Structures are given as structure tokens and as C-alpha cells.
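User: If only I could read C-alpha cells as easily as an amino acid sequence. Underneath my words sits a plain record pairing an amino acid chain with its C-alpha cells. This is the protein in question:
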Amino acid sequence: MYIIAMYDVGEKRVGKMLRLFRRYLNWIQNSVFEGEISEAKLLELKYKSLEIMDAETDSLIIFKTRQEKWLDKEIVGKERQTLDTFL
């Protein structure tokens, strides 16, 4: 599946969340990530996120779609990171 995920966490936890999410998805903007991920990896990501987050004050939002082609994405201004991968 293809997801867009964003988090809003306390300042002390931002670095940990950034490192965690970069292992699973592509970083596109401050606290916003996108990419293909399996259901098992998504469950793992959510579980590890909950270990970092404060359930009383922090949040994680995930938008899911079957494939990226069903998502119409428009970038206005400078794209933080391109998703091109060269092998």
C-alpha cells in the first residue's frame, strides 16, 4: 500500500520520530513522509511510534491508498527531497 504519514510530537521526541520514519518511508517535508509499505511494516512502524509518543499530547496521522497512481500530488514551491532513486 502507499501511505502519507505525518506526526506532531513534542520537541524532545522529534529527532527520534524522524530517525524512525526515515527507516520506513521517504521524507518529503518537516514531519511528513510518504511511500510504499507493507501492512506488516506499517504495523511495526505504528507500534514503534507509540513507544516514542506521549499519548496525551502527540499525534500520528496516516493516509492510505492502494497505489501511488491513485494519488494526485502537486508540489508548489521547492520540493524538499525528490523520490528518484539511482542504483
Notes: The domain at 2-67 is CATH 3.30.70.240 (Alpha-Beta Plaits).
